[in-house]
Amino acid sequence: MTQTAHRLTAFGPDFPFPYDRWLEHPAGLGQVPAEAHGREVAIIGGGIAGLVAAHELMRLGLRPVVHEAERLGGRLRSEAFRVPGEEDSQVIAELGGMRFPRSSAAFFHYVDLLGLETAPFPNPLTEAAGSTVIELGGQAWYARTLEDLPALFQEIAQAWDGALDSVLHLSALQEAMRRRDAAAVKQIWDELVPAWDDHSFYEFIASSEEFSRLSFRHREVFGQVGFGTGGWDSDFPNTMLEILRVAVCEFDDDQHLIRGGVEQVPRGLWAQPVDDAAHWRPAPPWRICTAATPGARSPECSGPMTDASASSTTPERSAATTRCWRPASPGC
Question: Can you give the pTM of this predicted structure?
Answer without folding.
Answer: 0.82
